[in-house]
Amino acid sequence: xxxxxxxxxxxRQRQGLYLVDRLWPRGVKKESLDLAGWxxxxxxxxxxxxxxHNGLSFAEFREKYVAELEERKAAGELDDALTELRDYQExxxxxxxxxxxxxxxxxxxxxxHAVVLRDWLAPQLES
Length: 127
Prior knowledge:
Elements: E1 2-5, E2 17-19, H1 46-53, H2 58-74, H3 79-95, E3 101-104, H4 113-126
Parallel strand pairs: 1-3, 2-3
Helix pairs in contact: 2-4, 3-4
């Protein structure tokens, strides 16, 4: 599993693309991406996104976002999304398809929610 910025992504026909932003990225036509999915339930809450944009440190954001993900998982709110991602990953491994790619729109490439989500998802998809 990897992440990439949607604006930098060139291979629009690639399989296994999942948009991990709550809002559709500005200036990107929906038909230009052949998404496998758009699991909005895996994205940070609107309140947390606002806090992060208003100065919350990345370390604090990571901690709060992981807590949100864990809470949603415990409540069963992520079951469908995690199953879909696990299924894709298993099929990709068996069929030699491209690995899962999480797309995001943030300008910052190292301090964004997709980095946190990728790190949190990796062990979730193994089980």
